[in-house]
Structures are given as structure tokens and as C-alpha cells.
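WARN retry 2 of 3 for item q-0093 after timeout on previous attempt; input resubmitted unchanged.
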Amino acid sequence: MTNADMATALLMGLAGAGHCIGMCGGIASAIGLSSQNRRALPLAYHSGRVASYALIGAALGAAASTIQMDLWRLLLRYAAALMLIAMGLYTANWWLGLRRLESVGSRLWQPIQKLTRPLLPAKHPHQAFLLGTAWGFLPCGLIYSALAWSSTQADPINSALLMALFGVGTLPAMLTASLGAQWLTRWLNSVWVRRSMGAALIAWGLFNLSMLVRHSLMHHAA
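OK item q-0093 returned
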């Protein structure tokens, strides 16, 4: 895992600010506003959410590591590059194809959502943490894209770390929603910021894709 991978994970989370607010902003705001201690519950909730991303990333990284095939690893890298491009297009609102993944994931989310009902309204940090852990399974195309990309590490620790960094990248938007600082949310959700971040993800995905094609052609020629 390189520094570029870690930076990309953070950018992916930050780039999804507008989408995160739309998907999770309501409950994040409710937790912040309903708490007598407006910091403890939101921090516990978002800690649970990041922990959930890391756990799922570790599981997928471990699953990917069990297949010891060069072709499999190569296909994963191609898929990761394409998912970065798809995420960039989605972030910039130029193509919303990732919503199809969300419709599939909603089937998994429904039984999990029922389990969260006894936790609402969250009054204690442990309740908020469990709620955030459950909310990490919310059907979200950006999360699915990040998971597909992180799983190419084919290592549970590295995949978990990248997903944790992705979660950290979402914190500026989500914490401002919880704590009521709407100016940063509006800035992150502005058209030019979303398009700039989306373009950066697309460029990085295209760069990775071009390097993979070049490597494949050189390997085939050899």
C-alpha cells in the first residue's frame, strides 16, 4: 500500500461529502441536536460508522487474499480503476450508475435497519456507536465503490486501513452536519467542489487504468 493509495482513500471520502449528507445527514443531525453533550454522541456515532467500514474492508480484503491467481489480481485492479472512474463521475453528478448498486444493497439494509430501532433515540455513547456501526451497512454506491477499490489490496489489514481512511475522509461533512456547522457542508456540496473532486478521482482512475493496460501489453509482448 502506497501513500498515493492512502491519499486516494481520504479523497474518496471527502469527495462523497454531498452524497453522505443526503444519505446519513438526517440521523447525524438528529443525534447531534438531541444530545445534551453535543460532542460525545456524534463522535461515538461516527466512530462506529468508520469502524464498520474498516470491518467490512477487512472481510473483503481477506476474501480476496484467498484466491492466489495473477489473473484474478489483475482483474481486481482493472475493476478498482473503473470503480474510481465511476465514483468520480458519480461525485461530479455526471453519471449516476452507482445508484443501481444501492438498489441491490437495500435488500441487505432492510433487516439491519430494523435492528437499529431500539437504539433510537440514542441517549448514550454506546448506543450511538452501535447505531453508527449499523449505519455503515447503509446501501451507498460510494461505499461500494470504495470497498471494491480497497479489496484489491488482497490483504485484510491494508483493506481495513484504506476503508478507515475513507471513513475519516467523510468526517468533515458528517461532523458539521452533527454539530450544526452548515457552512462547511455547503462548501463541500457546492458544484465546483464536487466537480473538482470528481475530476481528480476520474484522473487517478484513468492513470491507473493506463498503467494497467501498459503493463498488460508489455507482459503480453514478452
